[in-house]
């Protein structure tokens, strides 16, 4: 381990996605507790910026406008804007630049940064080590299904002398960004009942729970609890099918009606969220939702499930799960892991969590 006594400027490189940036926040929290007077900055992409920009843990945030650049035909202008961000970083002469993403693109940014110490963990992807001059030896694979990604990131904090390695989230104050309509909906819920948020959508087909299971869980609790369903507008077909099965009675449908900032308010004021491995799940964890039930099929609960608190994770009991693959490799019985967890099991867990 190198001398950490003269650390004054730190840059964290974590570009995307929302859940991955959330899983990096405890590292920023540990660094801030150790290096109270240091300048701690972060470079991210626009998709994941909400939890990073204006975060009290950080001094400065650089945002790469990837969505805008992707939709632009002016490649030269895109490159100029990218290099403008890089030049701002280079002028800071960071003592330490940390690559937690461990991809070639994040490593290139670390290499361009002119940081004195360029730190990453071992066993990264895509030759991500080539621009690092300090590689922390963990002896674990980057996608070790038995080791939590937050704890992996905290290996960096430990290497840099941080003593408080407890998992803690600090997020920006979104109070002025919460829409009045969402506040009104939450404030009008029946306070004599528990509030359950159902967040069924996720990005991989083999991380989705079966629709009939969502219907059966909701129908079991919709008379005795406040039920709120959340998803983005592009996931409306999924939530519409679920609502159709429930008769759309005693349910508040927020599909397409919330920003990420709104969701933090919804989750923070809920007694329980039920979700597969998704950005919603990790947002609920960071927001401090009182109870969480997470469902894992193709991915590993031991690696990314919320831990601590009144949180329960359930994994599919099938030999090929977790495969950690976006597409099911089975020739027959595709996505069979998503049918392994039954609604009755989740209903019983909900009852225990809400006691």
What does this structure look like?
The protein is α/β, with parallel strands linked by helices and 355 residues long. The chain has twelve helices and twelve strands. It has two domains: 151 residues, 3-Layer(aba) Sandwich (Rossmann fold); 174 residues, Glycogen Phosphorylase B (Rossmann fold, 3-Layer(aba) Sandwich). A six-stranded parallel β-sheet has the order 3-2-1-4-5-6, with helices on both faces. Strands 9-8-7-10-11-12 form a six-stranded parallel β-sheet, sandwiched between helices. α7 links the parallel β7 and β8. α7 runs parallel beside α12. The mean pLDDT is 93.
Question: What share of residues are in beta strands?
Answer: 15-25%
What coarse outline follows from CA principal-axis ratios?
Answer: globular
Largest sheet: 6 strands, parallel
Radius of gyration: 21 Å
Helix content: 25-40%
The CATH class assignment of the largest domain is Alpha Beta
- Note the total helix count: 12
Low-confidence stretches: none
Major sheet: order of its strands? 3-2-1-4-5-6
Instruction: Identify the CATH architecture of the largest domain.
Output: 3-Layer(aba) Sandwich
Task: Please name the fourth-level CATH homologous superfamily of the largest domain.
Answer: Glycogen Phosphorylase B
Oligomeric state of shown chains: single chain
- CATH-derived topology of the largest domain: Rossmann fold
- Helix/strand-derived class? alpha/beta
SSE topology string: EHEEHHEHEEHHEHEHEHEHEHEH
Taking the alpha carbons of the first and last residues, their distance comes to 48 Å
Number of strands: 12
Mean pLDDT: 93
């Amino acid at each position: 381990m190198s001398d950490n006594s003269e650390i004054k400027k730190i840059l964290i490189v974590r570009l995307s996605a929302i859940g991955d940036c959330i899983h990096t926040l405890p590292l920023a929290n540990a660094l801030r507790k150790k290096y109270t007077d240091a300048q701690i900055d972060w470079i991210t992409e626009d998709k994941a910026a909400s939890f990073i920009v204006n975060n009290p843990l950080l001094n400065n945030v650089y945002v790469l406008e990837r969505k805008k650049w992707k939709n632009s035909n002016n490649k030269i202008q895109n490159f100029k804007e990218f290099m403008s961000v890089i030049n701002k970083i280079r002028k800071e002469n960071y003592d330490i630049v940390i690559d937690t993403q461990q991809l070639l693109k994040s490593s290139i940014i670390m290499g361009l940064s002119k940081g004195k110490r360029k730190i990453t963990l071992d066993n990264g992807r895509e030759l991500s080590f080539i621009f690092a001059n300090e590689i922390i030896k963990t002896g674990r694979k980057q996608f070790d299904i038995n080791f939590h990604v937050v704890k992996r990131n905290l290996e960096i904090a430990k290497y840099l002398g941080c003593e408080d390695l407890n998992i803690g989230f600090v997020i920006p104050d979104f109070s002025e960004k919460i829409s009045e309509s969402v506040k009104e909906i939450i404030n009008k819920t029946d306070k004599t009942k528990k509030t359950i948020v159902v967040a069924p959508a996720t990005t991989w087909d083999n991380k989705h729970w079966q629709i009939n299971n969502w219907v059966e869980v909701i129908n079991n609790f919709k008379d005795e609890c406040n039920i709120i369903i959340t998803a983005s507008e592009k996931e409306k077909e999924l939530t519409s099918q679920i609502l159709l099965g429930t008769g759309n009675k005693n349910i508040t449908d927020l599909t397409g009606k919330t920003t990420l900032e709104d969701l933090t308010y919804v989750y923070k004021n809920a007694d329980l969220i039920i979700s597969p491995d998704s950005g919603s799940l990790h947002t609920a964890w960071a927001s401090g939702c009182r109870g969480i039930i997470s469902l894992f099929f193709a991915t590993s609960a031991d690696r990314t499930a919320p831990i601590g608190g009144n949180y329960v994770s359930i994994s599919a009991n099938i030999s090929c799960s977790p495969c950690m693959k976006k597409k099911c490799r089975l020739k027959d019985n595709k996505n069979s892991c998503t049918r392994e967890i039954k609604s009755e099991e989740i209903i019983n867990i909900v009852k225990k969590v809400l006691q």
